[in-house]
Amino acid sequence: MGFNCGIVGLPNVGKSTLFNALTATAAAEAANFPFCTIEPNTGRVAVPDQRLDTIAAIGKSANIVPTQLEFVDIAGLVRGASKGEGLGNQFLANIREVDAIIHVLRCFEDENVTHVEGGIDPVRDAETVETELMLADLDSMEKRVTPLTKKARGNDKDASALLVLVERVLVELRDGKPARTLDVSDDDKKAFQGLQLLSAKPVLYVCNVEEDAAATGNDFSAKVATMAADQGAGSVNISAKIEEEVAALDDEADKAEFLEALGLEETGLARVIRAGYELLHLITFFTVGPKEARAWTVRRHSMAPQAAGVIHTDFEKGFIKAETIAYDDFVGNDGEQGAKDAGKMRQEGKTYVVQDGDIMLFRFNV
After folding, report:
1. DSSP string spanning 36-64?
2. Rounded to whole angstroms, how far apart are CA atoms 136 and 88?
3. For residue 311, what pLDDT is reported?
4. Which of 41, 39, 61 is nearest to 52 (CA)?
């Protein structure tokens, strides 16, 4: 299980350039005019994790299989998209399908690259996109009120409960707040997710800065960071041009040398992934053996049977137990046998909550 992030933003902010760099493909045509991306392009990338290389070396694994992160490059949005302007309807349909939003904001000056709003103001641009998502949600929720009210009058308890939730969402939206700010109880979470609200999706702001500001950011990205902090969202500084150049290098040593010369310790991809994991509350567990060492992704607070189900549905159905070793114990005791001898391998049952970095072996019976 990986996770799915839609790259969105106004036209000409660097979305497609970033997509190409992150996926190291030329699947999305990067051009200096609006709507050069019409159909959503999808690319999968390996999630870099040094821990996987370490356990593979200890386990003498023949193959290394990282977990995957999926990016979807979505057509640029313009003001009025919620009413069908530009490619609005298509944009909204595409974004409805993703788990989280990677919102690219232009934070660089370049007279050779036009801006659809006529000037550089990333906070304004963020608000433009957010407003269109909220307006689309507002329209969607208002259309639900009448049919739900009729059902509620007919003593439909489910409709009555959903109507209360929809009305709470409408209050939030009419107050100019995205749906994700609504405090939703555990009992209502499934129904809330079923509403498919665009403004409920978690957001990571990616500030596309000039190359010289990739390590430190600039005044534009500082304003975005403040805005993100106020919203409880995340922000990452990245130079799409640098990422494009790094992606073109085949040798890892050359990549490291190139990044070091720019004052960077890692690629923007690594920062986006780490922020994305935090955004979606994801963790990684591992399986290791002579054939392969493999990373798997689950939601934080997942229990052992759910983790087993990520590997195969039969593992979850017939789950018996999970033989579990913490990453530090696996490394500190030179692998599975050493950890077992040191009493660091645990037998965990159905209620065990998987921890980030766990090395797991599932026992099941189908």
Report:
1. ---SPEEEEEE---HHHHHHHHHHT-SEE
2. 10
3. 94
4. 61
**pTM of the complete model:** 0.80
Higher pLDDT, 85 or 96: 96
DSSP-assigned letter for residue 353? B
The kind and range of the H/E element at 142 are helix 122-153
- Roughly what angle, to the nearest 10 degrees, separates helices 240-247 and 268-280? 110
b/e map of 332-357 (b: 16 or more CB within 10 Å)? ebebbebbeeeebbeebeeebebeeb
Q: Residue 67 and residue 48: Cα distance in Å, rounded?
A: 8
Which residue type sits at 297?
T
Q: Is the pLDDT of residue 80 over 60?
A: no
Max Cα–Cα distance, the chain, nearest Å: 69
Kindly tell me the burial class for residue 55, based on how many C-beta atoms sit within 10 Å of its own C-beta (0-12, 13-18, 19 or more).
buried
Question: Residue written as tokens 């002579």?
Answer: 290
The mean predicted confidence, pLDDT, of the chain is 86
Q: What is the DSSP pairing of strand 292-299 with strand 282-288?
A: antiparallel
CA distance 137 to 174: 10
Give dist(CA 114, CA 123) in Å, integer.
Answer: 17
Query: Is 60 exceeded by the pLDDT of residue 5?
Result: yes
What's the helix, strand, coil split of the chain in %, to 5?
45, 20, 35
Distance CA 67, CA 52 (A): 10
